[in-house]
Amino acid sequence: MIKKILIYLGIFVGFFPIFDHPARAASTPSIRDDTPTAINLPIPQRPHERSYLGLSGTGHFNISQIKAPVVIVEVFSMYCPHCQKNAPEVNKLYRIIEDNPYVKDKIKLIGIGAGNSSYEVEVFRKKYDIPFPLFADKDYSVHKALGEVRTPYFMGIKNNKDGTYRVFYSKVGGVEKADEFLEMMLKLSGL
Amino acid sequence: MSGKKETRIILVIAFTLFSFISTAYGLSGVYKENIYQVGDLKPRDSVPKLKVGDPVPDFTLPAVSGGKVSLSSYRGKKHVVISFVPAAWTPICSDQWPGYNIIKDIFDRNDAVLIGITVDNIPTLYAWTIQMGELWFPVLSDFWPHGEVADRYGVLRSDGVAERALFITDKKGVIRYIDVHDINKRPDLEVLIQELEKINHAYPR
């Protein structure tokens, strides 16, 4: 009898992917642990952005090289109405991090413009007066590495002292309330 | 154990598993699933009828916001960027105009306005564009006679939707720029703005 149940159960569980909807996977995309090192971005030209991220020189860097225990990455698009609407709240998130002496140097925020040229990223930056570093991803290569997530999307990465890191947050959707979002980041990262 | 009881146990387990799935599925419902995936289409499927230097054909079409808009009403006042997009509720079209929606200042600086046109009817356009937030430019419906304006501009595809096309006409009503773009790709904003700036700078004051 138990064997029979297990067989039925096996058949049922086997059908799971059919019922699973791609949107479900897209809303909380599972990110491979090596994703942060696979995302290569140009070292910013603006000196204050370089110093914010603790980077120097020219060339490229990957997210795990940012000198901070926690990095929050937003994937946005200047063409995405939700990202536009959410931009002021994401700016607020940056400000409350910077205004809090406890977390100021521990959490860094960057944005990656999926399918956006540098020109389009600049348009977005100017329109919403975005204070944190933004990067263009014109050919969608970063977007593809992240599993073609919908925008806005947020990823949280914890850089450990021993050089390892872990993705502690990966979710489609904006920042509803900056203070609550920060609190969640602190909790999930264990900072 | 009777067969009946066995079936009942299986049903209970199945139900439990199903409720788990529907909860997870429900979470994703926060993100609207309204965009229809069209797949990869033939990049261009129409025969050009206009070229740079031609007088722009006039049109009068109903606007989503009510009333009608005539292209000729901008004559002598503004350069006009006309943006045809293929159809409401499709992937690239659904973000192209929201992008233009945050650059009114660039249009203003270049003494230009934007007009958006699709071959969809007004109720469809209303439901679709309301998702984009408040648009500063008119969205016009070329639904009936179906695609008549798109056809006159040489951008009506064989399946009845418009190309993803951009026309810039100057204040005199002369076509200065045409980009009948690959329907599968979003036109680069920088190219459009550079062309608009060029046209505005060259225009006699």
Major β-sheet strand ordering of chain B: 5-4-3-6-7
Strand segment tally of chain B:
7
The fourth-level CATH homologous superfamily of the largest domain in chain B is Glutaredoxin
- Taking all residues together, what is the mean pLDDT of chain B? 87
What distance separates the N and C termini of chain B? 94 Å
Overall geometric form of chain B: globular
Give the SSE order of chain A as H and E letters.
Answer: HHHHEHEEHEHEHEEH
What's the CATH architecture name of the largest domain in chain B? 3-Layer(aba) Sandwich
Number of helices of chain B: 6
Report strand order across the widest sheet of chain A: 5-4-3-6-7
Q: How would you sum up this structure in a few lines?
A:
The complex is a heterodimer of chains A (191) and B (205). In chain A, 42% of the residues lie in helices and 21% in strands. By secondary structure, chain A is of the alpha/beta class.
Explain the overall architecture.
The complex is a heterodimer of chains A (191) and B (205). In chain A, helix 6 packs across helix 9. Chain A has a single domain, classed as Glutaredoxin. Chain A has a five-stranded mixed sheet with strand order 5-4-3-6-7. A two-stranded antiparallel ribbon of chain A has the order 1-2. The longest helix of chain A is centred in the middle third of the chain and has 18 residues. Helices cover 42% and strands 21% of the residues of chain A. Chain B is globular and about 85 Å long. About 10% of the residues of chain B have low confidence.
